[in-house]
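Quick start: read one record
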Amino acid sequence: MQLVDTHCHLDFNHYDADRAQVIARAQAAGVWRIVNPGIDAETSRAAIELAAQYESVYAAAGIHPNSSAGFTPGDIDAIGELARSAKVVAIGEIGLDYYRQRSPHGEQRRAFDAQLALAVELQLPIIIHSRDAGADVIDLLVRWVKVLPDPPGVFHSFGEDWHAAKRALELGFYLGFTGPITYKNADQMRAVAAQAPAGRIVVETDGPFLTPHPHRGERNEPAYVRFTADRLGAVRGVSLDEIAAQTRANAYALFGWHD
């Protein structure tokens, strides 16, 4: 069995004490590739450095909507330079977040729009963060999707209803499922996961956050993505080995891996 954790913040200080062991545990659990997205220039640079250090780790470069306050053209220049680095497979984590209110909506949209333009320039897929902002995210994507790469990207930690999922899928995006799919109150998420096309689903931890059952309450780490995958397979009526193979193939298609 080989799994891909398509979204984990391995550069965060939650892993400073045992990062090498975390990556080793992931490999022992069958997690052979991990994508580490940035949330600003500093974390994007750290993700790239980790990718250079560990064969199984890949990076994405981007400015998270909650990091977009005071966004300037210089910020996009910095991300653009980083995104040209080896083992960068996406622009992300980018998007809109109207829940946290850490950045004015207008600045979030400007940062998102500029990074969509960068993704077009570099022909890299995007990793989308969308929280309480689904309509505005889709409106922006509609303007760009014809010139974004194919496939255009993934909606990270998807938690909206089937109507929203259908709109994202119609634009060619993948849906990323995280630990909450294992929670008792996640019936809507499981319903979406059951209906989504097999070729458009991936699994992720969003570590150190969103830890799946039975480790809920602990720090999340890539080894735990197998619990998310197992539940995803169960709601779709397939085995863990089958869902691992499917989501791995999807991750390879999404990030342009061929080996």
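The chain has a mean pLDDT of 97.
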